[in-house]
Amino acid sequence: MAQTGIRAGELARLEDDAVTTLGDSISLRIPVGKLHNDRYVPLMPPLVQLIANYQKVRGPSRSGFLLERDDGQPFDRRTIHRYVDRVASEPGSVTSIPTSSATPWPPSSSTGE
Questions:
Q1: Residue 56 pLDDT
Q2: Which residues have a Cβ under 8 Å from the Cβ of 4 and sit 6 or more positions away?
């Protein structure tokens, strides 16, 4: 959230295909407002890889949303706030990610799959 400026409610409503390529960069498509005028936020390579890894571990989205609970329902913004607060309070938590947008989407697997 800190790297993208996305709000918890926007994060909760992201569709599973929200990561997209725009030109030479990878961006997060955030639908905004009643008319769904989309906002595009560039993603840094480590975040792109985290999202790809999460989707691989999670498997196909049952709700159509990027983030979902074990029961397939999307997270609500309050739950996202609780998780962010918990992670941020842990010793050694990551507070910044290096900035560069030169990672192709989807990221290649390091295992050769």
A1: 95
A2: 28, 41, 43, 47
